[in-house]
TrEMBL record:
Regions of compositional bias (Basic and acidic residues) in chain numbering: 144-164
InterPro entries recorded: NA-bd_OB-fold, Primosome_PriB/ssb
Protein name: Single-stranded DNA-binding protein
Keywords: DNA-binding
Residue span of region Disordered: 115-164
Organism listed in the record: Streptomyces griseorubiginosus
Keyword Zinc: no
Length: 164
């Protein structure tokens, strides 16, 4: 319960590597998170230190990540921070900062993205009927909405519809 949860914002540095394991799907990629600051003397933004994280995603998240992100994409990653290090002959040989991802998405402050819901595999005996997605589209003028009420094209028609 005392795991360190972090949210890292950066760019995908390596192509995601997808693996199908006995425990389910897994994907990993490197995330580069660079601090930026305003240099008041130069009056311009300057790049600071870059931190690299290895991001791991499992199961359905792994499947969705492998079909959604590529090198260079700006992403937001939320997950558990794991610091690993190895010591050889009494000297530290390497240290790695890994994120066991809970959620990954495109950084919409730096671009747009189109969400597509994945189809879940139906489990045998679930018994729950499939619910259709609601229609969020605005119906064309002169038609009826889902309650059977007329839809107006402009303000004058809205007033006329409201009176009838």
């Amino acid at each position: 319960m005392n795991e360190t949860m972090i949210c890292a914002v950066g760019n995908v540095a390596t192509q995601p590597v997808y693996r199908e394991l006995a425990t389910g799907a897994s994907v990993r990629f490197r995330l580069a998170a660079t601090a930026r600051y305003l240099d008041r003397e130069k009056r311009e933004w300057t790049d600071g230190h870059t931190n690299f994280f290895t991001v791991w995603a499992n199961r359905q998240l792994a499947t969705n990540v492998s079909g959604s992100i590529n090198v260079g994409d700006p992403v937001v990653v939320q997950g558990r921070l794991k610091i690993r290090s190895e010591v050889r002959e009494g000297q530290p040989s390497w240290t790695s900062a890994d994120i066991d991802a809970v959620a990954i998405g495109h950084d919409l402050a730096r671009g747009t993205s189109a969400f597509r819901r994945t189809q879940r595999a139906e489990t045998a005996g679930s018994g729950a009927p499939a619910r259709p997605e609601p229609s969020w589209e605005t119906p064309p003028a002169g038609t009826e909405d889902e309650r059977g009420e007329a839809v107006a094209e402009n303000e004058d028609q809205r007033e006329a519809v409201a009176v009838t």
